[in-house]
Amino acid sequence: MSSATSFAVGCSQIPPKSAKTIRTKPNVITVSAQQSQPVVVVVKPEKGNLSLIRREAIGFGLLMGLMGANPLTVLAAETEECKLVTIPSGLGFCDKVVGYGPEASKGQLIKAHYVGKLENGKIFDSSYNRGKPLAFRVGVGEVIKGWDQGILGAEGMPPMLAGGKRTLKLPPEFGYGMRGAGCKGGSCIIPPNSFLLFDVEFIGKA
């Protein structure tokens, strides 16, 4: 995808800290490192649907995110506690910083930083660690449902404004659902039916 190192569900292994990622051809990512053999990750979208790749990568830049992802050293936005408000669909939100710029419109290409956590607080991904925000078209299914609604607003939840920071709590149906993500050998980085927490910083249009 355009601005994040993507993680494919069912990839062979997590590469070491020194790994570098090179996209060699469509849907194939080669990860190389000085002290190990290259790891090739093949992304297999359903019927050529590239939006599936983006949805797997959102909150899921795990090739880079988990290699040195120590929760104590993750570079992230402020993570003070705030009181979540739950809308009728079950999605929870809390604005830590109300933005000052324009809101996003459906289909617009935008940029956002994020930290993704399991409900127990364990961090599984951070765009801050990669040093580059994620770019995607919002509201058209390129990312998980909770992100689209969490940024555009829904059911009384206001849209995010550029410059804003919002915490989202996503029920499983707004994230990776019954299948989870990053599953291999009976274990998953994001287990099935997981509630997910995202600290999202909406930077603005890309």
Automatic annotation (TrEMBL):
GO terms for cellular component: chloroplast thylakoid lumen. InterPro entries: PNSL4/FKBP13-like (IPR044183), PPIase_dom_sf (IPR046357), PPIase_FKBP_dom (IPR001179). Its EC number is 5.2.1.8. It catalyses: [protein]-peptidylproline (omega=180) = [protein]-peptidylproline (omega=0). Gene3D superfamilies: 3.10.50.40. It is found in: Plastid, Chloroplast thylakoid lumen. It is an enzyme of class 5 (isomerase). Residues 107-206 form the PPIase FKBP-type domain. Its main location: plastid. The keyword Chloroplast applies. GO terms for molecular function: peptidyl-prolyl cis-trans isomerase activity. Keywords: Chloroplast, Disulfide bond, Isomerase, Plastid, Rotamase, Thylakoid, Transit peptide. Belongs to the FKBP-type PPIase family. This is peptidylprolyl isomerase. It comes from Kingdonia uniflora. The lineage of its organism: Eukaryota, Viridiplantae, Streptophyta, Embryophyta, Tracheophyta.
